[in-house]
Specification:
Structural class: alpha/beta
Shape: globular
Radius of gyration: 28 Å
Order of helices and strands: HHEEEEHEEEHEEHEHEHEHEHEHEHEHEH
Distance between the termini: 106 Å
Largest sheet: 10 strands, mixed
């Protein structure tokens, strides 16, 4: 073998070995990438969740039961006497009625095998559906039939509408429930499937999730039940938002009287039922349909002129006050009522800021404090970053506030609900001229109908001395509403 031949032979062998090592390296890289994806997905599921996945549903049922017995999950055998019913409101006789409708259910069940919700219609319900099928009159509609009754699981904006159309599966085959029965949650439970609007934003969570859920329960006379919230999705669950959204969901759950047992994802709901004798878990009371209960409707986060051409929250001021009373009762549970009106003997001006607050708002704190306290030494000006404060502390501070100044995002907007009658809410919403034509005056339709407190909106160029004058004018003419 010549030197040239030997060189070629060794070169080929070296190349062959290198290619083998490269192949092994690529395989290991693919395995590692797959493992990273799996770990990331699992972390995402945990961050979206509320209840540790290994917790059994029986323990949740015991927490939901408010009797002395703290009963476990109840397994019942069924006959033809077990059936579901529905009552829906908001019908408009058009194909988009689902956006406006809300429904309450009796015997709303969750199928743990198919991971979806189920209704078992009665014979009378099926006969009613057949009767309605025989007419082509679009106005022949019943509010108590399951036929073509769809709702929106979450509050709507134009870009989110079609993804939220929902209704439980209608199951006419009773073989399973006759053979295996069903599990019933405690009778005081209200099962609420929903989609979170944007939990990573505290203001959206309170006004676009919690407030509509309260309205949903209240309209059907079910607000005295213990809520079991099962989130099927989140409209803004990008990876960078998961952790913040989870913190808000845990922090503000006390407003609805929830504990760690009473909010979970649909995936966790299914996981907790592993090993049950029946695949069906049912709640005597259920409700869904949040579509038009928030201020967004057909608005695109209020960035353009078109977003201000309609208002639909007229008369909501009374409902907001009822919501304030409801969340205060859940939050303090007999510890004493929050102040309901502004104090006549002390003036408190509260700046609520966050790490994302505009620099000009932060600079205005010292300017306003100096101006107001020199004019009236008894006036107290305080500044607080609410993301560092518990919800209870927020409620106490805001309920004792005469004037609250905050920006249009974060915990300040969420805690505005606790303002007393006669207070002034000043919202600073700076223009974003690079990307949008208008300032994002979030929830303007709702807040402008609050009634029990006054609202003043500010944008660029209206801080400092003008803010001090605005506050002074309010203090001079203030009177309990």
């Amino acid at each position: 073998m010549t030197l040239k031949t030997r060189t070629q032979f060794f070169t080929r062998n070296i190349i062959y070995v290198l290619l083998q090592w490269m192949a092994v390296f690529m395989i290991l890289l693919c395995i590692l990438s797959h493992l990273l994806v799996v770990v990331k997905q699992q972390i995402g599921r945990m961050e979206q969740g509320f209840v540790p996945p290994r917790r059994q549903l029986a323990a949740v049922a015991a927490e939901l039961d408010d009797t002395d017995s703290h009963q476990q999950l109840k397994h019942v055998t069924t006959t033809d006497e077990f059936y579901s019913t529905v009552h829906c409101v908001g019908e408009n006789f058009n194909s988009d009625a689902w956006k406006f409708k809300s429904c309450q259910f009796r015997n709303l069940c969750f199928d743990t095998r198919s991971n979806d919700y189920v209704l078992f219609p009665s014979l009378e319900e099926l006969q009613l559906q057949q009767l309605l099928d025989q007419t082509s009159n679009k106005f022949a509609v019943s509010s108590s039939t399951m036929k073509d009754s769809f709702v929106s699981l979450g509050t709507l904006t134009p870009e989110l509408s079609s993804r939220q159309k929902w209704f439980p599966r209608i199951e006419t085959n009773r073989t399973d429930i006759h053979a295996h029965g069903v599990y019933m949650l405690p009778e005081n439970t209200l099962l609420v499937p929903y989609v979170s609007f944007q939990a990573n934003h505290a203001g959206h969570l309170v006004w676009d999730d919690w407030f509509p859920i309260y309205l949903l329960a209240s309209m059907f006379g079910l607000s005295d039940k213990k809520f079991l919230l099962v989130r099927s999705a989140c409209n803004d669950c990008a990876d960078e938002h998961l952790q913040l959204g989870q913190r808000h969901l845990e922090k503000y759950r006390s407003l609805l009287g929830l504990n760690e047992f009473q909010q979970m994802t649909q995936m966790e709901f299914a996981q907790m039922t592993t090993g049950l004798q029946s695949p069906y878990v049912c709640s005597k009371f259920g409700a869904a349909g949040l579509g038009m209960m928030a201020s967004h409707l057909k608005k695109e986060s209020n960035w353009t002129d078109q977003d201000y051409t309609m208002t639909h929250m007229v008369g909501y001021g009374a409902l907001m006050w009822q919501f304030r009373t409801f969340v205060a009762s859940k939050l303090f549970k007999g510890e004493g009522a929050l102040p309901s009106t502004i104090s006549s003997d002390k003036i408190v001006v509260t700046f609520v800021t966050s790490p994302l607050s505009a620099p000009e708002l932060l600079r205005a704190v010292d300017s306003v404090k100096q101006t107001l306290q020199s004019a009236s030494p008894t006036t107290r000006v305080q500044s607080q970053t609410f993301n560092e404060v518990s919800v209870k502390e927020q409620a106490i501070m805001v309920s004792q506030t005469t004037v609250m100044i905050t920006d249009c995002q974060g915990d300040g907007l969420a805690s505005a609900i606790f303002l007393p009658r006669g207070a002034l809410l000043v919202l600073y919403c700076p223009d974003d001229t690079e990307e949008n034509t208008m300032p994002a005056q979030l929830n303007w339709d709702l807040l402008n109908h609050a009634a029990y407190f006054r609202v003043h909106w500010l944008s660029n160029g209206h801080l400092g001395d003008q803010l001090s004058r605005l506050i002074n004018m309010h203090l001079e003419e203030q009177a309990p509403l």
